[in-house]
Specification:
alpha+beta, hypothetical protein PF0899 fold, 3 domains, two-stranded antiparallel sheet, 10% strand, rod-shaped, V-type proton ATPase subunit E, ATPase_E_C
Length: 334
């Protein structure tokens, strides 16, 4: 239901507005309706009269508009909008005519527009601040993450470098130690080969002698001077037993002479040949097993005291005592 009040139309669907406050806006709206729809103003209705100016249906130049259609027009006019939702083409044309006529904004629309612009500007500033702060926080987070990852990579690299250095040091030490052991082993093998070669040469020298009697006699005298006993048993190789029997008397006489000369005392020694136990035979090329190059073994006191004066033992003693000199000859210092 539309009612004309003091020259303007108020619809029940608009809301409870005060007449005096809305008068300028409503006057403009009424003028639009008169110009667009071409219907008379009707009677003026106000506080002094109750006569309605229009019925429920308004006759508008061949078409009609109901209060339900007019109410949105008034409401949108108050809010700065003049578009009317019309389903038929005639109502759409009416909306275009309203928009063409009401091209100039009203003061209320201007105030509302200013408020909207102010709010939009503040919101834009706020949004810019939020975006800026977000970008700053993002940059800080990215820098922090990059720094942390760099530190992790650096620590991992340092740990890996230490592991590589440790592995290299261990491998180097093991290689040096292995080389040193191989060097010692090679030198020891060289010394052993030298001893074997000396044995071969001694064996050849022993076979070249016309009679080993003098050599065996000297070996027996050395043993007697170490024992200083009155009765001594001499052991030799079975191949040297016959030669050794001829050496016992001469060895005893030389021993007594040496004691007499050195001490002035007369001391004799009874020598006997051990016919039960013999030394190992001479070495044979290509044959393994115990062997003896020659010499004698003296024992007394029922075998409790024994002197090994064989060539093999004397060679070992010389090789051990003269090892530094032999190494100097075999492996001269650079």
């Amino acid at each position: 239901m539309l009612t004309c009040v003091s020259g303007f139309v108020v619809g029940s669907g608009i809301g409870a507005y005060k007449t005096q406050e809305l008068r300028p806006c409503l006057d403009d709206t009424l003028e639009l309706l008169v110009q667009v729809f071409s219907f008379p103003r009707g009677k003026v209705c106000g506080p002094d009269t109750q006569t309605p100016c229009l019925d429920d249906t308004l006759q508008v130049t061949g078409s009609s508009i109901t209060p339900a259609l007019a109410a949105p027009v008034l409401e949108k006019s108050l809010c700065g909008e003049v578009a009317v939702s019309a389903a038929d083409p005639e109502q759409s044309q009416s909306q275009q005519r309203i928009q063409a006529v009401d091209s100039k904004p009203s003061p209320s629309q201007q105030r509302i527009q200013h408020m909207c612009d102010f709010i939009l500007a503040g919101a834009t500033v706020k949004a810019s601040d939020i975006v800026r702060k977000g970008e700053e926080e993002f940059s800080l987070d990215v820098d922090k993450l990059i720094t942390e990852q760099k530190q992790k990579v650096r620590k991992a690299y340092e740990l890996r470098a230490k592991q590589v250095e440790t592995s290299y040091a261990i491998a180097k030490s093991m290689a040096i130690n292995k080389q040193r052991l191989e060097k010692i082993k090679a030198r020891q093998e060289a010394l052993v080969r030298t001893g074997e070669e000396v044995k071969v040469q001694l064996a050849q020298e022993m076979t070249k002698q016309d009679s080993p009697k003098k050599f065996l006699t000297q070996l027996i005298v050395q043993g007697l001077l170490m024992l200083l006993e009155t009765e001594v048993v001499v052991r030799c190789r079975q191949s040297d037993s016959k030669v050794l029997e001829t050496c016992l008397q001469d060895a005893s006489a030389q021993y007594a002479t040496i004691i007499k000369t050195q001490t002035g005392a007369a001391k004799a020694c009874k020598l006997s040949l051990d016919n039960t136990t013999y030394l190992s035979p001479a070495p044979i090329a290509g044959k393994e097993g115990p062997s003896c190059l020659g010499g004698v073994v003296l024992h007394c006191q029922n075998g409790n005291i024994l002197i090994d004066n064989t060539i093999d033992t004397r060679l070992k003693l010389v090789m051990e005592q003269a090892k530094p000199a032999i190494r100097g000859l075999l492996f001269p210092a650079k």
